[in-house]
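FAQ
Q: What does a multi-component entry look like?
A: The components come first, one per line:
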Amino acid sequence: MRAKRRWTPLRRGVQAAFAAFYLLLPWLNRGGLRAVLGNLASLKLGPVDLIEPAAGVSTLLASGQWSWALAWGMALPLLLALVLGPVFCSWVCPWGLFSEGLDSFKLRLLKLRRSWSAEGYRRLFWLRLAVLVAFLAGSWAFAVPLVALLAPPRLLSSLPQELFYLRVPPTLTGALLLLWLAAELLLPRRWVCRALCPVGSFWNLLRTPWTITVRFQPALCLDPQVAPCHLHCPWGIDPRRMGRFDGCTNCLRCVDGCPSGALLAGSGGARLPVHPQTPGAGAAATS
Amino acid sequence: MKLSRRFVLELLFPPPPLRPPGAKDERAFLSLCIRCNRCVAACPYGTLKPAPLGAGAGAGTPLVVPREVPCYLCMACPPVCPTGALDPIADKRAVRMGVAVVDPNTCYAHLGILCRTCVDECPLEGEAILQDQQLLPVVTEKCVGCGVCEKVCPVAEPAIVVKPRGRG
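Then the predicted structure of the entire assembly, as tokens:
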């Protein structure tokens, strides 16, 4: 068997780089750097404007008028999403990194076994959609971009900025983040990311049949019934059965965990039929 | 019932603070500002601050607290706004952040002490704050509301303060 590529260390590196970038940016700005400004709502990279699409759409709805500046700012991130999938959640978002850490800490502390209900991720789709629609409709109704105002990625990436510029604890952003933290602790595993975050829900919808995803080769799968790949998934998704909008963020942990090389990063590939009750799923546990 | 509704509304939409130069009127500003802090980081004087607790729906938006750091009208912030919440104006005379108001009860000039600090320090010298025949400071309609006068006023509780116009 050829040496397998390990994605998770690479992904941790990218996540850490983004977190460090937003942590250090206020100091760089104060040191005279003016070409790079912003946070995860919008980033200025020299002459290029980047606008996170969910926050951008929320702003368009709130202001009630079309803006070419906003549309152009969203173009590159939208293209990234359509090619690479919702990598914002698993490779970029600092709350995603924090939430993954908190989840594994929670599991270790409570000595829980890694288990997921077999098709739980599928049921979350409608909740996610409802939350997104509520955020966007609320933006329009109150004329305030609620995604930019309340979503965890923007809040967490502006925390160092506010700490730096206010020179007192940023109480408002801090309070909103504490609410998300409480949700993360009290609700089922990873619910803030899997169900409640409007940014994640929006990126999840940006998919085409050609968007990169986890490619499954059934012929190589050791045991289609109880193989542990959906226990590797930080969201409990079974990559062999998932549909296009089931929430996979291309973190590729299942690819790393697959013992037989049946899972690859790519596009297309076959899927197993959906079982309403997969025998052993959820009960089968690995550490 | 009616009272509690107003209370909630004021909690969510408190009266507008002093906004950066070029800001659209408060309602449009709140709807367009994407809370990216780009203007805050672009300000070379550290004038712009993210809104503190009590900002309601204005959480994450930029504001000016003149007594701490006033706006020096360098106009660096409007061009970096990605959404048009700040109109990219370049002429500092077109700014309409607020208007300075003199309190005759505490102003040294009004109390008979010779003081013309605000008149001298106004960045729109000879236009926005004039001295009348009694040597009292008079704010004209040219005042843009940058807050330099509020910053330099020697009275402990500034006798000249900027009243936000609800835009920039």
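Q: Is there any commentary attached?
A: Sometimes. For this entry: Confidence is low (pLDDT under 50) at residues 278-287 of chain A.
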